[in-house]
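Here is one chain, start to finish.
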Amino acid sequence: MIVWRGPNRIAHWASFLVFFAAFGLWTLLASEVSKDPAWPATALGIVALLVVVVFALAWAGRGAVKSEGSSLFPAFDGVPSWVGLALALIGLGCVAAGAYSYYVHDREFWIAVQFYVVGFGAMALSQALPRFRRPFARD
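Its structure:
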């Protein structure tokens, strides 16, 4: 199992801050370059929906944690670890879809930016959740 203490804990915080900064910068860029204000609002709405789902899972699993969890924030310790992995995959998929639509399909930049907002928001959220543990890993 990966333990996020000591230098690993610093790397965990650093990765969260990098993804959160990328999310913030792409959100600012989305509000500047978008031709329709509904597009950035929709992208932020999707990220907000992901946050609400994670908080609901954390609330439902708040009593399930017996010891210190591996999440960045103690409130998220009750969230199943596979949720973070799923969010990271969703985030990577959104960033890849944005890059693909911009570079391959020659769509407008403001459309690709919306994918980046959702992608980096999901990846930042996944960094705040408990670490994914391999099914047959030794402790």
